[in-house]
Design a protein that fits this description.
- By secondary structure, the protein is an alpha/beta fold.
- The chain contains 13 helices and 17 strands.
- Strands 1-13-5-12-9-2-8-6-7 form a nine-stranded mixed beta sheet, sandwiched between helices.
- A hairpin with a 7-residue loop joins strand 16 and strand 17.
């Protein structure tokens, strides 16, 4: 059944993970903030509609023609074997036929078909998409996740045992995600694989070590700890003891169970997909359900210079099942209204396919025009913002730059995009850049908010 919407808008249709965890568990983040937090911007006047963000980061750059901006009339040189489109449950919106489950969820998300920054290098493109800023300056800016962990995490009085910025399962960029905010704001990267029988989250679970054995080890440690009994009321030992208790509360208590998928129904796990991306989507839902402000799923394998279509035969069904089930699951649980879901990568892939050797049907880096998808947290569903040309090679209408999208996410979270960030030099550093700084921008995504 079609959902009636105005479908087209503006267009036609190195700190270790263990150190980070230890810092979070011992309250080091709060101690390290010091006076810098006091200089952070006040909350935005807009009332927050979002509490959390799930970022689906397609590391390497997903091909926009093979996903949410298909061009079936462009011909074999551009479409290859993925030349069919499918109608969605929103009149006027079609996507690639490789995503049939997501086609049934289009009323929940909006497609931005006019993303652009013109950068074709992984490091520099990832940096601008994750921070809204160009690389190469004397200031290293924090990623969106680090900023959210500041404003919606520690500054907002976050008390959870799990750090407020989590990455499943490895850091998502080739840059320091925390930037000048410092190591306290680096993401807790879980490691492990949630699709395995046991999700071995670093610092919480270890191979062959059961919860019962952990308890025995803790008891043995206390039995052998003669120093603590000999030097009582020592502030340093008391702080160490508090840190140890907090760590064990996470390892053996309720908080750490968020990573244990064994209590999920097999039917639910099958819907998400029994693969790393699908099960990561399930873990992400569990994390935001427990109040984690920012979760990134770092899905690799999208850098398809060679044999793009061979890779897509695996990647697209996994994306289709995982993302569609995540959207439906969040909606069913009443979480989608307060959770921003942001899908995309550092750029797209070249619209024209490279059939020559050794690429054999590859697509290369392409930052001139690409696609992102947003849902929930105050973003409207069932819309298309902007448009690319008939080959998907240039922005035809309503360009959207990374700072436009990032500023819109901040606004939905109740974070003032024009506010300032604390930094070691006490410089007036804004959360998002201005045109006066030489940035091109199309404006925040008011059409979708």
């Amino acid at each position: 059944m079609s959902t009636k919407h105005n479908a087209a808008i503006g267009g036609r249709s190195t700190v270790s993970r263990r150190d980070v965890l230890r810092g979070g568990l011992c309250g080091a983040a709060g101690l390290l903030l010091g006076n810098s937090v006091a200089g952070a911007a006040a909350a935005a006047p807009r009332k927050a509609t979002a509490k959390s963000v799930i970022q689906l980061w397609m590391w390497g750059g997903p091909p926009h023609l093979d996903t949410f901006d298909p061009k079936p009339d462009a011909g074999e040189a551009y479409c290859g074997p993925l030349n069919e489109v499918i109608p969605t449950n929103v009149d006027g919106i079609t996507i690639n036929a490789t995503l049939p489950l997501l086609a049934k969820q289009a009323d929940k998300y909006s497609i931005i078909r006019s993303m652009t920054h013109g950068i074709n290098g992984h490091e520099t493109a990832a940096y601008i998409v994750q921070t809204g800023r160009k690389a190469g300056g004397r200031v290293v800016y924090p990623s969106v996740g680090a900023v959210v962990s500041l404003f919606k995490g520690y500054k907002a009085g976050y008390k959870g045992l799990i750090p407020p910025y989590v990455v499943l399962t490895r850091p998502q960029g080739r840059f320091s995600e925390a930037g000048f905010l410092g190591s306290s704001y680096k993401p807790f990267a879980t490691g492990g694989d949630p699709a395995r029988p046991v999700f071995l989250v670093e610092g919480i679970a270890a191979p062959g070590i059961s919860r019962e054995r952990q308890k025995l080890r803790r008891g043995l440690l206390h039995d052998l700890d003669a120093l603590r009994g000999a030097i009582q009321n020592n502030p340093q030992l008391q702080a160490l003891g508090k840190c140890e208790k907090t760590a064990y509360d996470l390892i053996l208590g309720e908080a750490g169970k968020v990573f244990d998928l064994s209590d999920e129904d097999d039917e639910v796990r099958e819907k998400y997909g029994r693969n790393t991306f699908g099960q990561s989507c399930l873990v992400a839902r569990r994390l935001v359900e427990r109040g984690i402000p920012y979760v990134t799923i770092n899905s690799g394998g999208w850098d398809t210079h060679k044999e793009n279509f061979k890779a897509m035969r695996t990647k697209l069904p996994q994306l289709d099942a995982g993302m569609s089930t995540l959207l439906q699951d969040l909606s069913d649980r009443g979480l989608l209204d307060t959770t921003v879901v942001w899908w995309g990568g550092e750029f797209g892939r070249t619209p024209k396919i490279d059939w020559g050797s050794p690429w054999n049907g590859g697509r290369h880096h392409f930052g001139a025009c690409f696609t992102s998808v947003v849902a929930g947290g105050g973003f409207k569903g069932g819309r298309v913002l902007g448009a690319s040309d008939d080959k998907g090679a240039t922005v035809k209408d309503r360009p959207v730059y990374p700072c436009d999208l990032i500023g819109s996410i901040y606004e939905l979270l109740g974070i003032d995009p024009e506010g300032t960030l604390p930094n070691p030099q006490n410089l007036p550093v804004r959360l998002t850049p201005t045109a006066d700084e030489g940035y091109r921008m199309g404006g925040r995504l008011k059409e979708l908010m």
